[in-house]
């Protein structure tokens, strides 16, 4: 059943079929076998859709793969895009496909083509590169500019290529911040990071060359490698295989192919390989030399007067001598190859060393073992001293006519140091006079006469004096060992014990115990003869006084 309005909008006059002849807002839709929107006419918006229910453009074609195809039986069919009111020809733009190429025509001539191999041609129908831009005559082929026409023109010229900027015949490559990176001006000068190059290569900033950079020979006054602000200072080729260095236009240093380095003695004769020479300018041989000589690692010498110092290949440093012999004058400092840390000084007729401490008293030379100080030589208030630093320290200080005991800092020490010990004794002491022992009453206490027991012990000890020989002297001298007189300390100890006394309480009897080199405990006894004889003498005097008293009583 058909409505009257539907029939009124459908007109079939034998020549054409008209739908919606009344121009009403009446859409038209044709369904396909599998697409409900095969053809849709949106009358209200004057749009036509193919395969879409809501066309967004005057012609809106939707598809999943190939959306549309324009076919013609001709080999160079065109799709014309004419200007408004134009039927085509010179007033249209056309796109076309021919032999698998795609091209665009404008003004009734081909302007751009994409060939079947992907090459893009502008101004040519046969592009020979990925982008091939051609002009009918030499001139601008590519222009990049902004609204102020400040940009770059690329031009094809006879026999080459030119980039023009604002009309000047220059080639410039810029970074995005518009700072010149690469600039060639009309004089052929190349500037890198510089807009006004004054030389054939003008670099502003750092440069790295990973290959080979070659310079001219240059000269001392105009070195090949020079500085912008100092053109007569730098590096140049002084001679064949020789490198020269100049300062202020004058050569000051030269390095030869043999490894000889002249500093301030440029051109000096007599040089050797591996030598550094310091001295006069202009060929003078006066000066100082450092060189590697046969058998030695380093030699320091006055160029005209021979060796001054040598560091040998065994690690010995020699000053003023050429061999490590104590018989030769000079200084020898041994390195690790000869034991290390050994200093030898030899001088003929003069002191071998001088050490001078200024401004204050204290150590002048110190001695250490395993990093710890064990001794020193120094001065204290004008007196020189030598001491060991172990424990509290013990040393000898020297005055104008005296030698004094000192402590570990060199200060004088009274009544606290011993000369020798129980295990380490002096043999003989040669002196004009005997020892002086303090006997000041102000420093004594418990002063008393001998007791009867002490007199008894002294009487017994006086009978113990014997002659003897020292065993070690007999071993060393045989029958030539001399006979000594004295007492035996063990017998003295027994005599004191028999009298009811303890010998260890008396200073004339001594006993020292230590651990010997074999790790065994060893004891050695001794006596102080001056005190022992004083002990015996006091007892004898008291006995004689007692005898005299008795005789006096008998006579009365």
Summarize the structure.
The protein has 556 residues and is mostly beta strands.
Structural write-up:
The structure is a single chain. The model is unreliable at 280-286 (pLDDT under 50). Among the domains are: 4-61, no CATH class; 78-134, no CATH class; 355-417, no CATH class; 450-555, Arc Repressor Mutant, subunit A (Orthogonal Bundle). Strand 13 (140-144) and strand 14 form a beta hairpin. The chain has a twelve-stranded mixed sheet, with no helix packed on it. The chain has a six-stranded mixed sheet with strand order 7-8-9-10-11-12, with no helix packed on it. A five-stranded antiparallel sheet has the order 32-33-34-35-36, with no helix packed on it. With 556 residues, it is mostly beta strands. It is elongated. Helix 2 (452-462) runs antiparallel to helix 4 (489-498) and helix 2 packs across helix 5 (529-555).
């Amino acid at each position: 059943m058909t409505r009257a309005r539907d029939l009124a909008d459908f007109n079939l006059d034998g020549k054409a079929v008209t739908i919606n002849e009344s121009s009403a807002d009446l859409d038209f839709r044709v369904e396909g076998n599998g697409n409900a929107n095969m053809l849709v006419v949106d009358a209200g918006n004057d749009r036509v859709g193919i395969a879409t229910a809501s066309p967004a453009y005057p012609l809106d074609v939707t598809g999943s793969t190939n959306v549309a195809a324009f076919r013609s039986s001709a080999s160079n069919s065109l799709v014309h895009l004419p200007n408004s009111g134009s039927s085509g020809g010179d007033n249209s733009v056309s796109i076309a496909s021919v032999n698998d190429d795609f091209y665009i025509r404008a003004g009734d001539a081909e302007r751009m083509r994409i060939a079947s191999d992907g090459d893009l041609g502008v101004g040519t129908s046969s592009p020979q590169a990925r982008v091939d831009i051609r002009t009918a005559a030499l001139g601008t082929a590519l222009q990049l500019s902004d609204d102020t026409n400040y940009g770059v023109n690329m031009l094809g010229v006879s026999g080459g290529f030119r980039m023009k900027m604002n009309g000047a015949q220059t080639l410039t490559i810029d970074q995005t911040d518009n700072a010149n990176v690469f600039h060639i001006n009309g004089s052929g000068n190349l500037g890198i990071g510089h807009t006004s190059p004054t030389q054939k290569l003008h670099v502003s900033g750092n440069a790295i060359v990973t290959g080979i950079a070659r310079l001219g020979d240059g000269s001392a006054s105009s070195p090949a490698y020079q500085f912008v602000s100092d053109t007569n200072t730098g590096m140049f080729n002084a001679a064949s295989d020789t490198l020269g260095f100049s300062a202020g236009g004058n050569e000051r240093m030269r390095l030869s192919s043999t490894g000889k380095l002249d500093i301030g003695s440029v051109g000096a004769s007599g040089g050797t390989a591996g030598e550094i020479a310091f001295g006069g300018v202009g060929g003078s041989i006066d000066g100082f030399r450092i060189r590697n000589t046969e058998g030695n690692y380093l030699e320091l010498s006055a160029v005209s007067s021979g060796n001054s110092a040598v560091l040998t290949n065994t690690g010995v440093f020699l000053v003023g001598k050429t061999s490590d012999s104590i018989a030769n004058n000079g200084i020898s400092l041994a390195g690790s190859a000869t034991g290390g840390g050994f200093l030898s000084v030899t001088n003929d007729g003069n002191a071998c060393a001088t050490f001078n401490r200024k401004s204050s008293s204290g150590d002048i030379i110190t001695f250490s073992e395993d990093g710890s100080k064990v001794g020193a030589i120094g001065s204290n208030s004008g007196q020189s001293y030598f001491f060991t630093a172990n424990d509290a320290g013990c040393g000898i200080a020297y005055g104008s006519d005296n030698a004094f005991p000192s402590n570990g800092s060199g200060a004088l020490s009274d009544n606290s140091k011993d000369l020798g010990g129980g295990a380490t004794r002096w043999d003989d002491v040669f002196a004009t006079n005997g020892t002086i022992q303090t006997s000041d009453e102000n420093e004594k206490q418990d002063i008393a006469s001998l007791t009867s027991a002490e007199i008894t012990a002294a009487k017994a000890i006086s009978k113990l004096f014997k002659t003897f020989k020292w065993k070690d002297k007999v071993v060393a001298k045989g029958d030539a060992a001399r006979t000594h007189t004295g007492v035996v300390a063990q017998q003295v100890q027994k005599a004191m014990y028999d009298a009811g006394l303890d010998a260890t309480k008396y200073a004339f009897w001594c006993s020292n115990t230590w651990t010997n080199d074999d790790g065994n405990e060893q004891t050695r006894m001794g006596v102080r003869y001056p005190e022992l004889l004083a002990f015996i003498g006091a007892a004898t005097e008291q006995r004689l006084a007692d005898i005299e008293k008795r005789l006096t009583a008998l006579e009365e």
